[in-house]
Design goal:
The chain folds into two domains: 186 residues, Rossmann fold (3-Layer(aba) Sandwich); 172 residues, Glycogen Phosphorylase B (Rossmann fold), CATH 3.40.50.2000. The longest helix is centred in the first third of the chain and has 19 residues. Helix content is 44%, strand content 18%. The protein has a seven-stranded parallel beta sheet, with helices on both faces. Strands 10-9-8-11-12-13 form a six-stranded parallel beta sheet, sandwiched between helices. It is built from 18 helices and 13 strands. The chain is globular. Helix 7 links the parallel strand 5 and strand 6. Helix 1 crosses helix 18 and helix 10 runs parallel beside helix 12. By secondary structure, the protein is an alpha/beta fold.
């Protein structure tokens, strides 16, 4: 049977997921299914190595969405984008007589699938579910119940066969029980396995004193990740920690966020502490090297319903993390003993956490168990079967 795998974005985990699926399909000798990967046109020249892997496989076909169409879709308000992207997918499904479609970013389609019953069955990955959302303000309550009703309504769509929830068994159990369904299933977010950039020396590259332990805060920079509070924590840290640690913030930031970060760094009073901000995208190999050469990973994220690929990178390299006690990430860290948990994402809590880092050792056996559950093969098999 011919199936479509669809994603209209290729940044970050979007391409990682496609790569995992390609590797799984091409290595599965018993595979009898055929797949169309419906992706943005720029995939051809940004990730030609992935395309090349499929050259000798007649089970995989590529269909490329023109760049101008992707730009148009992404500029639409979400409610319009939902219907527009479903219409696009339907056009290709009708063209190739496809009866099953995998939506690698199901969030976009939720609203449209309340009203539309496509001719094909749908499986998709849902990010940022409402179950763990805070409801301590009117605005947060409104957002919670908006997501609640959207979920409740699309659950009535018989064409939706499976909605995968990343890493969160509590959310899966809650959603299935609340909406009297079995559509929701857990999907373990795969931990990518990368080679390190052997020649890269973080201490030399960033001119960090060799005796200092690097605390890294990697990935796309966003205030929701506690980046501002990490900087504010520097002025709370004592002389011992200032001598022992250095903080390295690495990742792309939008212009307004970059300006705030630079302003915060410029007014720090603790001049003894080494803290650096590298506003640049890093390759997978560079990220691997940075984490390997770091002592710990700072993840004081504010979004309680979010998972994070960075946590997997830390676990596979046996690096402890510092993260909030609440939310999905907190639950995972507690279960597998992956690091220090703080009560809230504040400068004081982060500073206290940093002061306690040397008192904590990760459990390598539990960390290995976590890594073994989150392989690309398990992810791909769960999604495609």
């Amino acid at each position: 049977m011919l199936k479509i795998i669809y994603d209209s974005e290729i940044a970050g985990h979007h391409t990682e997921y496609i790569s995992h699926l390609i590797n799984f399909i091409t290595n599965d000798k018993n595979n009898r299914e055929k797949y169309i990967f419906l992706v943005p046109e720029e995939m051809q020249y940004k990730f030609p190595d992935i395309i090349k892997l499929t050259e000798n496989y007649d089970t995989i076909k590529w269909e490329f969405i023109p760049n101008e169409q992707c730009t148009f879709l992404q500029a639409l308000p979400l409610y319009k984008r939902s219907f527009a992207e479903l219409k696009l997918v339907k056009a290709y499904a009708d063209k190739f007589n496809v009866k099953e479609v995998f939506l690698l970013y199901f969030n976009i389609f939720q609203l449209a699938l309340i009203f539309k019953r496509p001719s094909f069955e749908v499986k998709g990955i849902l990010f940022l579910q409402f179950y763990r959302m805070q409801r301590d303000t009117i605005l947060k309550k409104l957002k919670y119940y908006r997501k609640y009703w959207v979920t409740k309504l699309y659950c009535h769509n018989s064409k939706i066969k499976t909605v995968f929830v990343l890493n969160d068994d509590k959310t899966v159990d809650f959603l299935n029980a609340k909406f009297n369904t079995s559509k929701f299933k857990i999907l373990f977010d795969p931990i990518p396995v990368y080679d390190a950039e052997i020649e890269f020396d973080a201490y030399k590259h960033y001119n960090i004193p060799r005796h200092k332990k690097i605390l890294i805060h990697p990935g796309a920079i966003d205030p929701r990740k506690g980046t501002y509070e990490i900087i504010d924590a520097v002025d709370i840290l004592g002389e011992k920690e200032s001598e022992e640690f250095a903080i390295l913030i690495v990742g792309k930031a939008k212009a307004d966020i970059e300006n705030v970060l630079k302003e915060k760094l410029s007014v720090l009073k603790n001049k003894q502490f080494t803290i650096l901000f590298d506003n640049s995208f890093v390759s997978n190999m560079r990220l691997k090297s940075l984490i390997l050469q770091s002592y710990a990973v700072l993840m004081p994220y504010k979004n309680v319903e979010a998972s994070s690929g960075i946590l997997g990178h830390a676990a596979i390299n046996n690096k402890l993390v510092l993260a909030p006690n609440s939310g999905l990430i907190g639950d995972i860290i507690k279960k597998y003993k992956l690091g220090i948990l703080i009560d809230r994402t504040t400068a004081m809590c982060i500073a206290n956490g940093i002061e306690n880092l040397h008192n904590y050792d990760t459990d390598e056996i539990l960390a290995a168990e976590f890594v073994s559950e989150h392989t690309a093969a398990i992810f791909s098999r769960s999604l495609l079967n």
